[in-house]
Amino acid sequence: MILDGKKISDKRLEILNEEIMDSGLYPQLATIVVGDDPASHLYVKMKRQACERVGIGSVKIEMPVRTTTEALIEKITSINRDSVIDGILVQLPLPKQVDSRRVFSAIAPDKDVDGFHPCNLGRLFSGHPLFSPCTPLGIMILLAEYDLPVAGKDAVVIGRSMDVGRPCAALLLNADATVTTCHSATKNLENITSRADILVSAVGKAGFITPSMVRDGAIVIDVGINYVDGKLTGDVLFDSVKDKAAWITPVPGGVGPMTIAALMENTFKAARLRECTSVT
Ligand SMILES: NC(=O)c1ccc[n+]([C@@H]2O[C@H](COP(=O)([O-])OP(=O)(O)OC[C@H]3O[C@@H](n4cnc5c(N)ncnc54)[C@H](OP(=O)(O)O)[C@@H]3O)[C@@H](O)[C@H]2O)c1
Questions:
Q1: pLDDT, position 277
Q2: Any atom of ligand 1 within 6 Å of the Cβ of 183
Q3: Among the four residues 98, 137, 158, 164, which has the most C-beta atoms within 10 Å?
Q4: For ligand 1, is residue 259 a contact (CB within 6 Å)?
Q5: Which fold has domain 134-256?
Q6: Quick count: other Cβ atoms within 10 Å of Cβ 60?
Q7: Would you call 96 a catalytic residue per the annotation?
Q8: Which residues pair with 236 in a beta bridge?
Q9: Bond from prior residue into 252 cis (ω within 30 degrees of 0)
Q10: Residues 25-38: pLDDT tens digits?
Q11: For the chain, what are the domain ranges?
Q12: Distant-in-sequence, close-in-space partners of 122: CB < 8 Å, separation ≥ 6
């Protein structure tokens, strides 16, 4: 069975649009792109299109590829003070000379809709998230939309990045899964993954997950974005793994659209928080 991220994202965005209209608020998201990476500009374009669809204003800030950490922090500081902006998104990856940890620490935690500020990561890892990183949050929303229980399940996350692997493991743990995080130094990876009820691959290597790594009846979440001969593909050998898995996300149309839906929901949450209306 396919976990249709596109369908669920469309549904969530429609509901969000109604909620935003009913709220009388006009949330605004500032997106910052540093450099000319076409993929980054495309992702930001898709995020801004989603903003338009749900009734969130968006402001795109473009900075040159040679931007320094200090210049980027200065820009963020001015947006932090801008009372009409509710959320700030700095598109990854940043150029090598930019210290991304300092940059994410400069975003006001209450505008940190990507959830990368140490305060928000700390809240997430202590079990009390406010803004969770959008890709893992989108995965949790997708599982919930399909009524797939997480509590008590063995979950294996491959990847330990700050934006995907680590927060995904934390959200699964918060939802009472028993979580194992794997990375490039993990030994006997297949032994570990083939025990998983829920397997999340956030590696970034096409064809990395083969059927022998997957337990019969598992839920397989493919976060990977890879291009093979110009064609978008995930980490999972979809055609053969789908026969073993009970549930599987396609690429495209799985985790990607859910990431955008989660970003929109986080931005509306930030706007409501600033209005001091009730937020759960
Ligand atoms: N769909 C979406 O919305 C979305 C959002 C974000 C990212 N992505 C995609 O998701 C993928 C992962 O993104 P990321 O930012 O997390 O990438 P990343 O920072 O490069 O992390 C990749 C992780 O994979 C691990 N890894 C690499 N080779 C491995 C191996 N042979 N065995 C086990 N683990 C291995 C690395 O381990 P070490 O830590 O030991 O190096 C690292 O933790 C990429 O394809 C990215 O484009 C998709």
A1: 55
A2: yes
A3: 158
A4: yes
A5: Rossmann fold (3.40.50)
A6: 15
A7: no
A8: 209
A9: yes
A10: 999 999 999 999 99
A11: 24-109, 134-256
A12: none
